[in-house]
Design goal:
extended; mainly alpha; 18% helix; 0% strand
């Protein structure tokens, strides 16, 4: 971020850096963010076809999204 290569960083930071600002955007357990060109309705079929990212404050492994999808017999495309 300091070099101007990144506009936004997500993570846990216990201290404020004198060269950056931080603020809480919102507090939500789960959020789905989609591209501007996404259709108004997100079906399970469309969801499965699209690539995904996961922002987690813990080590990767089983996560609640993939666990829930597996219960319904679906699988995501986590990158």
């Amino acid at each position: 971020m300091m070099d101007g290569e990144v506009d936004l960083a997500l993570g846990v930071s216990p201290e404020n850096s004198p060269n950056s600002k931080r603020s809480v955007l919102f507090e939500q357990r789960s959020v789905c963010v989609v591209a501007d060109d996404a259709s108004a309705k997100l079906t399970m079929e469309t969801y499965q076809q699209r690539p995904h990212i996961l922002v987690a404050m813990k080590e990767l492994g089983d996560n609640e999204i993939d666990v829930a999808l597996a219960i319904w017999g679906f699988r995501g495309k986590l990158h």
